[in-house]
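2024-03-11 09:14:02 DEBUG pipeline.ingest accepted 1 chain
2024-03-11 09:14:02 DEBUG pipeline.ingest length=134
2024-03-11 09:14:03 DEBUG pipeline.predict start
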Amino acid sequence: METELQQEINEVLKAFPEYWDEDTLLKHKLIEDVRSYNESLIEALLLNELIRDTYSLQLSSGIVFKTEDFIGMLRFKNYWDNSYTKYTNEVGLTSEGKYLKYNTDVVLDFPHKDSVLEGGMTKEDIGKKRNLLS
């Protein structure tokens, strides 16, 4: 069962035969063209009112198409049909709502880099100060 939005997207994409293999949507090619800002594709998507309202941002200087939101919908579309959540096959660390494998802005922080962390504290260790590196 497709949502109304998915039906509208499929209707718009029917005008582009290069994204179809019989009745199967070639998502990888579609995602590649959306990422490369294919003007005719994005203009066709924005002409549809429902798609424009869902995947665009109206600014005083023009309209901005939310490519990452659109691509996210394409990636997780398979999980919506029979699932309680769109993340059924994806478990892992995220940063700003994206999995680390899709996000390049990841920093490994060591908050106590000037001290030594020792495990296995016993009663004798209580009261000792932590060792500091020189």
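2024-03-11 09:14:41 DEBUG pipeline.report Strands lie at 20-21, 24-25, 56-59, 62-65, 94-95, 98-99.
2024-03-11 09:14:41 DEBUG pipeline.predict end
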